[in-house]
């Protein structure tokens, strides 16, 4: 039996974020919450806006890995809301991660930032999002997160 996996480009999201709210050491690591204030996304099948009101709930672990868990809503250009839960990991050399945490720009290829999003919608048009596996590749900029989403086929 020969299995194969292919990635199909879905869309690129530009997610605008505010400064983090530092919760502190929770015993699991340093907890912080990054408010999501808006943004946009565009691809061949989907395009629209990122609605304000979501957040990325992060744990900065002792081993230098950031566990991200973002909850937010996107809305397609035809008015359909889609709920997104996006879990991921970000890590790299300490000096690079420290710069990212301080909000400084770093070269995109100097750290690992991958996600596994789940989408939910009640729309028949976008029902395929409820049934497929997706992955994301992220880039952290000072005031936004860029994520390229792919469908796993």
Automatic annotation (TrEMBL):
Top-rank taxon, per record = Bacteria
Pfam families in alphabetical order? DUF3237
Under InterPro entries, the record lists:
UPF0311 (IPR020915)
**Classification via PANTHER family:** UPF0311 PROTEIN BLR7842
**Family, as annotated:** Belongs to the UPF0311 family.
The protein, known as: UPF0311 protein F4V44_04355
Whose protein is this, by species? Niallia endozanthoxylica
């Amino acid at each position: 039996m020969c299995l194969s996996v292919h990635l199909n480009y879905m869309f690129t999201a530009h997610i605008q974020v505010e400064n983090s709210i530092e919760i502190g050491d929770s015993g699991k690591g340093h907890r912080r919450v990054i408010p999501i204030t808006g943004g946009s996304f565009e691809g061949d099948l989907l395009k629209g806006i990122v609605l304000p009101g979501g957040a990325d709930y992060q744990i900065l672990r002792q081993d230098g890995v950031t566990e991200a868990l973002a909850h937010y809503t996107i809305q397609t250009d035809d008015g359909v809301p889609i709920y997104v839960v996006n879990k991921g990991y970000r890590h790299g050399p300490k000096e690079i991660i420290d710069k990212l945490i301080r909000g400084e720009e770093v070269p995109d290829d100097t750290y690992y930032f991958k996600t596994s999003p789940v989408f939910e919608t009640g729309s028949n048009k976008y029902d395929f999002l409820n049934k497929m596996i997706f992955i994301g590749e992220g880039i952290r900029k000072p005031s936004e997160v860029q994520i390229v989403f792919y469908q796993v086929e």
